[in-house]
Protein backbone atom coordinates (compact mmCIF):
# COMPACT_ATOMS: atom_id res chain seq x y z
CA UNK A 1 0.00 0.00 0.00
CA UNK A 2 1.17 3.53 -0.61
CA UNK A 3 1.92 5.70 2.41
CA UNK A 4 -1.67 6.65 3.17
CA UNK A 5 -2.67 3.01 3.38
CA UNK A 6 -6.10 1.79 2.44
CA UNK A 7 -7.85 4.34 4.62
CA UNK A 8 -6.16 7.50 3.34
CA UNK A 9 -4.80 8.34 6.78
CA UNK A 10 -2.88 11.61 6.66
CA UNK A 11 0.89 11.36 7.08
CA UNK A 12 2.64 14.49 8.37
CA UNK A 13 4.65 16.27 5.72
CA UNK A 14 2.97 14.72 2.67
CA UNK A 15 3.44 16.76 -0.48
CA UNK A 16 0.41 15.25 -2.16
CA UNK A 17 -2.56 13.60 -0.55
CA UNK A 18 -5.67 12.31 -2.21
CA UNK A 19 -8.49 11.30 0.14
CA UNK A 20 -11.27 9.19 -1.41
CA UNK A 21 -10.98 10.91 -4.79
CA UNK A 22 -13.56 9.74 -7.32
CA UNK A 23 -14.28 10.99 -10.79
CA UNK A 24 -17.37 10.27 -12.86
CA UNK A 25 -17.63 11.74 -16.36
CA UNK A 26 -21.29 12.38 -17.06
CA UNK A 27 -21.53 14.93 -19.85
CA UNK A 28 -23.17 12.59 -22.36
CA UNK A 29 -25.75 11.15 -19.98
CA UNK A 30 -23.87 7.82 -19.87
CA UNK A 31 -21.76 8.03 -16.69
CA UNK A 32 -18.19 6.71 -16.86
CA UNK A 33 -16.48 6.13 -13.51
CA UNK A 34 -12.80 6.89 -14.14
CA UNK A 35 -11.57 6.97 -10.50
CA UNK A 36 -13.03 5.06 -7.57
CA UNK A 37 -12.26 6.46 -4.15
CA UNK A 38 -8.49 6.74 -4.61
CA UNK A 39 -6.31 7.31 -1.55
CA UNK A 40 -2.72 8.31 -2.06
CA UNK A 41 0.06 10.09 -0.19
CA UNK A 42 3.47 11.10 -1.48
CA UNK A 43 6.40 12.14 0.69
CA UNK A 44 8.70 15.01 -0.31
CA UNK A 45 11.69 14.13 -2.46
CA UNK A 46 10.12 11.06 -4.05
CA UNK A 47 9.70 10.00 -7.66
CA UNK A 48 6.50 8.04 -8.35
CA UNK A 49 5.32 6.52 -11.62
CA UNK A 50 1.71 5.68 -12.44
CA UNK A 51 1.07 2.84 -14.83
CA UNK A 52 -1.95 0.85 -15.89
CA UNK A 53 -3.78 -0.49 -18.92
CA UNK A 54 -5.33 1.95 -21.39
CA UNK A 55 -8.44 3.57 -19.89
CA UNK A 56 -7.49 2.64 -16.30
CA UNK A 57 -7.66 6.31 -15.18
CA UNK A 58 -4.00 7.45 -15.20
CA UNK A 59 -4.60 10.80 -16.91
CA UNK A 60 -7.73 11.40 -14.87
CA UNK A 61 -5.75 10.77 -11.68
CA UNK A 62 -3.02 13.19 -12.75
CA UNK A 63 -5.56 15.83 -13.79
CA UNK A 64 -7.58 15.58 -10.57
CA UNK A 65 -4.46 15.57 -8.37
CA UNK A 66 -2.98 18.62 -10.12
CA UNK A 67 -6.14 20.73 -10.31
CA UNK A 68 -6.44 20.52 -14.10
CA UNK A 69 -9.77 18.78 -13.54
CA UNK A 70 -12.20 18.63 -10.65
CA UNK A 71 -12.90 15.36 -8.81
CA UNK A 72 -16.57 14.39 -8.45
CA UNK A 73 -15.89 13.75 -4.76
CA UNK A 74 -13.00 13.53 -2.33
CA UNK A 75 -10.21 15.91 -1.37
CA UNK A 76 -6.82 16.86 -2.72
CA UNK A 77 -4.12 18.41 -0.54
CA UNK A 78 -0.84 19.88 -1.77
CA UNK A 79 1.69 20.29 1.05
CA UNK A 80 -1.15 20.25 3.57
CA UNK A 81 -3.26 22.86 1.79
CA UNK A 82 -6.61 21.68 0.49
CA UNK A 83 -7.18 22.44 -3.15
CA UNK A 84 -10.39 24.39 -3.55
CA UNK A 85 -12.10 23.84 -6.86
CA UNK A 86 -13.90 27.18 -6.98
CA UNK A 87 -13.40 29.04 -10.23
CA UNK A 88 -10.54 28.82 -12.73
CA UNK A 89 -8.86 32.00 -11.40
CA UNK A 90 -8.75 30.59 -7.87
CA UNK A 91 -7.40 27.27 -9.11
CA UNK A 92 -4.75 28.92 -11.26
CA UNK A 93 -3.66 30.94 -8.23
CA UNK A 94 -3.53 27.77 -6.13
CA UNK A 95 -1.44 25.91 -8.71
CA UNK A 96 1.07 28.72 -9.20
CA UNK A 97 4.19 28.25 -7.16
CA UNK A 98 2.91 24.92 -5.83
CA UNK A 99 2.65 22.81 -8.96
CA UNK A 100 4.86 22.36 -12.01
CA UNK A 101 3.81 20.55 -15.19
CA UNK A 102 5.73 18.67 -17.85
CA UNK A 103 3.64 17.43 -20.79
CA UNK A 104 4.35 15.01 -23.62
CA UNK A 105 4.21 17.82 -26.22
CA UNK A 106 6.44 20.23 -24.21
CA UNK A 107 3.92 23.17 -24.41
CA UNK A 108 6.52 25.86 -25.02
CA UNK A 109 5.60 29.23 -26.52
CA UNK A 110 7.27 29.38 -29.97
CA UNK A 111 7.66 33.17 -30.04
CA UNK A 112 9.60 33.27 -26.77
CA UNK A 113 13.27 32.42 -26.24
CA UNK A 114 14.34 29.56 -24.00
CA UNK A 115 15.08 32.01 -21.17
CA UNK A 116 11.68 33.69 -21.57
CA UNK A 117 9.87 30.34 -21.65
CA UNK A 118 11.62 29.20 -18.48
CA UNK A 119 10.86 32.38 -16.56
CA UNK A 120 7.33 32.94 -17.91
CA UNK A 121 5.38 31.33 -15.02
CA UNK A 122 7.28 33.41 -12.44
CA UNK A 123 6.78 36.58 -14.47
CA UNK A 124 3.04 35.85 -14.80
CA UNK A 125 2.95 35.63 -11.04
CA UNK A 126 4.71 38.98 -10.78
CA UNK A 127 7.60 37.28 -8.93
CA UNK A 128 11.24 38.11 -9.45
CA UNK A 129 13.14 35.14 -10.83
CA UNK A 130 15.84 33.94 -8.46
CA UNK A 131 18.97 34.30 -10.60
CA UNK A 132 20.95 31.71 -8.68
CA UNK A 133 18.15 29.17 -8.95
CA UNK A 134 17.75 29.95 -12.67
CA UNK A 135 21.46 29.45 -13.29
CA UNK A 136 21.59 26.22 -11.28
CA UNK A 137 18.56 24.81 -13.09
CA UNK A 138 19.69 25.87 -16.57
CA UNK A 139 23.14 24.42 -15.92
CA UNK A 140 21.61 21.19 -14.67
CA UNK A 141 19.51 20.77 -17.85
CA UNK A 142 22.55 21.79 -19.91
CA UNK A 143 20.92 24.70 -21.75
CA UNK A 144 23.24 27.58 -20.82
CA UNK A 145 24.36 27.92 -24.44
CA UNK A 146 20.77 27.87 -25.79
CA UNK A 147 19.10 30.53 -23.62
CA UNK A 148 18.57 32.99 -26.49
CA UNK A 149 17.33 30.39 -28.96
CA UNK A 150 13.68 29.73 -29.82
CA UNK A 151 11.99 26.33 -29.34
CA UNK A 152 11.90 25.65 -33.12
CA UNK A 153 15.73 25.73 -33.11
CA UNK A 154 15.90 22.91 -30.55
CA UNK A 155 15.54 19.13 -30.77
CA UNK A 156 12.61 17.41 -29.04
CA UNK A 157 14.83 16.34 -26.15
CA UNK A 158 16.16 19.88 -25.71
CA UNK A 159 12.62 21.28 -25.78
CA UNK A 160 11.60 18.87 -23.05
CA UNK A 161 14.63 19.97 -21.02
CA UNK A 162 13.37 23.57 -21.35
CA UNK A 163 9.97 22.41 -20.08
CA UNK A 164 11.65 20.68 -17.12
CA UNK A 165 13.69 23.79 -16.35
CA UNK A 166 10.47 25.85 -16.49
CA UNK A 167 8.84 23.46 -14.02
CA UNK A 168 11.88 23.44 -11.70
CA UNK A 169 12.76 27.12 -11.62
CA UNK A 170 9.91 28.21 -9.36
CA UNK A 171 10.75 25.38 -6.94
CA UNK A 172 7.21 23.95 -6.87
CA UNK A 173 6.03 21.55 -4.19
CA UNK A 174 5.42 18.89 -6.82
CA UNK A 175 5.92 18.30 -10.54
CA UNK A 176 3.26 16.41 -12.50
CA UNK A 177 4.60 14.81 -15.67
CA UNK A 178 2.22 13.33 -18.26
CA UNK A 179 4.05 10.91 -20.60
CA UNK A 180 7.11 13.21 -20.58
CA UNK A 181 9.15 10.84 -22.75
CA UNK A 182 6.30 9.79 -25.07
CA UNK A 183 7.50 11.96 -27.97
CA UNK A 184 11.24 11.22 -27.57
CA UNK A 185 13.61 8.56 -28.88
CA UNK A 186 15.25 6.19 -26.40
CA UNK A 187 18.41 8.24 -25.95
CA UNK A 188 16.59 11.58 -25.40
CA UNK A 189 14.09 9.85 -23.13
CA UNK A 190 16.93 8.55 -20.94
CA UNK A 191 18.36 12.08 -20.65
CA UNK A 192 14.99 13.47 -19.57
CA UNK A 193 14.50 10.69 -17.00
CA UNK A 194 18.00 11.31 -15.62
CA UNK A 195 16.99 14.94 -15.13
CA UNK A 196 13.96 13.93 -13.11
CA UNK A 197 16.20 11.63 -11.04
CA UNK A 198 18.60 14.51 -10.39
CA UNK A 199 15.77 16.95 -9.62
CA UNK A 200 14.60 14.55 -6.93
CA UNK A 201 18.06 13.70 -5.52
CA UNK A 202 19.74 17.14 -5.82
CA UNK A 203 16.87 19.63 -5.52
CA UNK A 204 14.64 17.48 -3.27
CA UNK A 205 11.83 17.77 -5.81
CA UNK A 206 8.77 15.54 -5.70
CA UNK A 207 7.78 14.11 -9.09
CA UNK A 208 4.76 12.07 -10.14
CA UNK A 209 4.75 10.78 -13.70
CA UNK A 210 2.23 8.92 -15.86
CA UNK A 211 3.91 6.61 -18.35
CA UNK A 212 3.26 3.59 -20.56
CA UNK A 213 6.96 2.75 -20.68
CA UNK A 214 8.39 0.20 -18.18
CA UNK A 215 11.89 1.66 -18.71
CA UNK A 216 10.66 5.16 -17.80
CA UNK A 217 8.76 3.77 -14.80
CA UNK A 218 11.90 1.95 -13.59
CA UNK A 219 13.51 5.36 -12.87
CA UNK A 220 10.91 5.99 -10.17
CA UNK A 221 11.22 5.00 -6.49
CA UNK A 222 7.73 3.56 -6.57
CA UNK A 223 5.34 2.46 -9.31
CA UNK A 224 1.60 2.57 -8.63
CA UNK A 225 -0.58 0.36 -10.84
CA UNK A 226 -4.10 1.48 -11.69
CA UNK A 227 -6.85 -0.81 -12.95
CA UNK A 228 -10.42 0.38 -13.54
CA UNK A 229 -9.90 3.57 -11.55
CA UNK A 230 -8.32 1.95 -8.49
CA UNK A 231 -4.73 1.55 -7.29
CA UNK A 232 -4.46 -2.23 -7.24
CA UNK A 233 -0.74 -2.71 -6.69
CA UNK A 234 2.54 -0.94 -6.10
CA UNK A 235 6.19 -1.79 -6.69
CA UNK A 236 9.19 -0.32 -4.88
CA UNK A 237 12.65 -0.39 -6.51
CA UNK A 238 11.17 -1.26 -9.91
CA UNK A 239 13.18 -2.54 -12.85
CA UNK A 240 11.98 -2.66 -16.48
CA UNK A 241 11.49 -6.44 -16.50
CA UNK A 242 9.44 -6.64 -13.29
CA UNK A 243 7.31 -3.64 -14.34
CA UNK A 244 6.66 -5.15 -17.80
CA UNK A 245 5.73 -8.49 -16.17
CA UNK A 246 3.28 -6.80 -13.80
CA UNK A 247 1.73 -4.85 -16.69
CA UNK A 248 1.28 -8.07 -18.67
CA UNK A 249 -0.33 -9.74 -15.66
CA UNK A 250 -2.72 -6.81 -15.12
CA UNK A 251 -3.56 -6.70 -18.84
CA UNK A 252 -4.56 -10.39 -18.73
CA UNK A 253 -6.58 -9.86 -15.56
CA UNK A 254 -8.48 -6.95 -17.16
CA UNK A 255 -9.15 -8.99 -20.33
CA UNK A 256 -10.51 -11.88 -18.21
CA UNK A 257 -12.67 -9.49 -16.17
CA UNK A 258 -14.11 -7.86 -19.30
CA UNK A 259 -14.75 -11.26 -20.92
CA UNK A 260 -16.65 -12.37 -17.76
CA UNK A 261 -18.74 -9.18 -17.67
CA UNK A 262 -19.66 -9.61 -21.36
CA UNK A 263 -20.71 -13.28 -21.06
N1 LIG B 1 -13.98 13.60 -20.89
C1 LIG B 1 -14.38 12.35 -20.73
N2 LIG B 1 -15.67 11.98 -20.89
C2 LIG B 1 -16.07 10.71 -20.71
N3 LIG B 1 -15.25 9.70 -20.37
C3 LIG B 1 -13.94 9.99 -20.22
C4 LIG B 1 -13.43 11.30 -20.40
N4 LIG B 1 -12.07 11.28 -20.18
C5 LIG B 1 -11.77 10.00 -19.89
N5 LIG B 1 -12.88 9.23 -19.89
C6 LIG B 1 -12.96 7.80 -19.59
O1 LIG B 1 -12.45 7.60 -18.29
C7 LIG B 1 -11.67 6.40 -18.23
C8 LIG B 1 -10.24 6.73 -17.79
O2 LIG B 1 -9.64 7.54 -18.80
P1 LIG B 1 -8.12 8.04 -18.70
O3 LIG B 1 -7.87 8.89 -19.90
O4 LIG B 1 -7.92 8.65 -17.37
O5 LIG B 1 -7.32 6.67 -18.78
P2 LIG B 1 -5.77 6.41 -19.05
O6 LIG B 1 -5.37 5.31 -18.15
O7 LIG B 1 -5.03 7.69 -18.95
O8 LIG B 1 -5.82 5.89 -20.55
P3 LIG B 1 -4.67 5.86 -21.70
O9 LIG B 1 -3.56 5.00 -21.18
O10 LIG B 1 -5.38 5.20 -22.85
O11 LIG B 1 -4.29 7.28 -21.97
C9 LIG B 1 -11.76 5.77 -19.62
O12 LIG B 1 -12.80 4.82 -19.61
C10 LIG B 1 -12.12 6.94 -20.51
O13 LIG B 1 -12.85 6.53 -21.65
From TrEMBL:
PROSITE patterns linked: ABC_TRANSPORTER_1, ABC_TRANSPORTER_2
Keyword Transferase: no
InterPro entries for this protein: AAA+_ATPase, ABC_transporter-like_ATP-bd, ABC_transporter-like_CS, ABC_transpr_LolD-like, MacB-like_ATP-bd, P-loop_NTPase
Residue ranges of every copy of the ABC transporter domain listed in the record: 16-253
GO molecular function: ATP binding
Pfam families in the cross-refs: ABC_tran (PF00005)
Keywords: ATP-binding, Nucleotide-binding, Transport
UniProt KW NAD keyword: no
Domain of life of the organism encoding this protein: Bacteria
Name this polypeptide is given: ABC transporter ATP-binding protein
The species this protein was found in: Kitasatospora phosalacinea
Amino acid sequence: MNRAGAHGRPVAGDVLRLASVSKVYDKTGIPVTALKSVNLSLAPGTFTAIMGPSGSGKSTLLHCASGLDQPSSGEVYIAGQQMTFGNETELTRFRRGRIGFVFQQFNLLPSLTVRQNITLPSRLEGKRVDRQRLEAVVERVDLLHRLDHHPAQLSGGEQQRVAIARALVSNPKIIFADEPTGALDTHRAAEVLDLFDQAVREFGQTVIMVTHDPIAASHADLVLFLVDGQIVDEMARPNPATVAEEMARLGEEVARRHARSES
